[in-house]
């Protein structure tokens, strides 16, 4: 059985809830309803993360070690976007426009000093975009805690942290607060992402690493998402 780890966030900025956690709970079946993926051979586990720069890396590391997933998808809220969007890159930068839930507001500082400037997501993004017209292509996850989760996740996988041995696809998806996509449709869009990510896992594509623990064949240890997507479809 394929195990998918989803992460969502606690509320922030005075909001009473965070749709990213609602989606994660829905797909994991921890909201009182059966998971929509229960009969698909995919086990979904969900972890709620705090909106804090200081804690997300260590909590992600613990979640990876605890669950040993095949696929990891971080979820976050992008209130200004009208549709579900899939992120291509996590950057090693914190540039917070507002304080996080601990009151910290880092500005122009690296998330992980000494690590690569960025990592590319390893989800088969081109295939995901073709599979569901509601998904938007995004080249920026911002520089707040969503981006921090994406960068730290990809960096931990690149380093071969405990629990990442089986990871074949990892990335981040933003869900909107309002707009044409209702909250009820968010889980459908993420369902498509999980299904296509599972296809990537099934190929058994190697996760080659360079001497720094990053991905081989890409500058600064960055992953070549296009090559992974090609492996997914056999092209």
Q: Which keywords apply here?
A:
235 residues; six-stranded mixed beta sheet; 6 helices; disordered C terminus; two-stranded antiparallel ribbon; alpha/beta
Helix/strand structural class:
alpha/beta
Number of strands: 10
Roughly how many Å is the radius of gyration? 16 Å
Biggest sheet details:
6 strands, mixed
What can you tell me about this protein's structure?
This protein has 235 residues and is an alpha/beta fold. Helix content is 31%, strand content 20%. The protein has helices at 19-28, 56-67, 125-131, 145-159, 183-203, 225-233; strands at 2-9, 42-49, 71-77, 85-87, 89-91, 94-95, 107-109, 118-120, 136-138, 169-175. The strands form 3 sheets. Strands 2-1-3-10-4-9 form a 6-stranded mixed sheet, sandwiched between helices. The chain has a two-stranded antiparallel ribbon with strand order 5-8. Helix 1 links the parallel strand 1 and strand 2. Helix 5 packs across helix 6 (225-233). The model is unreliable at 179-184 and 205-235 (pLDDT under 50).
